Amino acid sequence: MTDVDALATFDFAAFFAAVDVARRDRDIGWYDLAAELWDQSAQLNAERDDHPLCGGAVSRLGGRGETSCQYALYLLRWLGQAPEEFLTGPAPDVGDVRLPDPGPDCRLRWDLAQLHAALNEERQRQGLTWAVLAGQIGCTPSRLTNLRTARMADMALTMRVTQWLRRPAAEFIHPASSRRRAELL
Fold it and tell me: In terms of Cα–Cα distance, which of 42, 167, 32 is closest to 97?
């Protein structure tokens, strides 16, 4: 077994299936779901000039088989579930995985710079090069180093990084408001 095989992975199919089941249980269509996702931050949305989520785009996520870590947070918040609940494979106990409760004046956002800093600190502590670390996580070195300035990353990558760090995703997810506009981009 390789290091990559030892990491739990985010099961996007199970995640999207949970969203679809919850949507059907609530007897709402995709456009109504998109409206509910958007309305989770109703107060924030009233302060900003953003475009609401598109029901068609939400419905097509299943066919894509992946999503960004930021977009996944809308759905995880709506489900009331943590990303760790959708891991497959050997997942270490990382403690409390509950996501923050952001309220209607905020959105949940990954702090990718914070994730990068934690990753770099642990990489240095272990004396690893970015190339060796990327091999352990199962990606290219640039995907890891780019987290320092990234605003988006795919959910699969962010969850592999948190699993490698043996830390809960919630440690890197924070409520963001218009008072801290840069976090929302």
Answer: 167
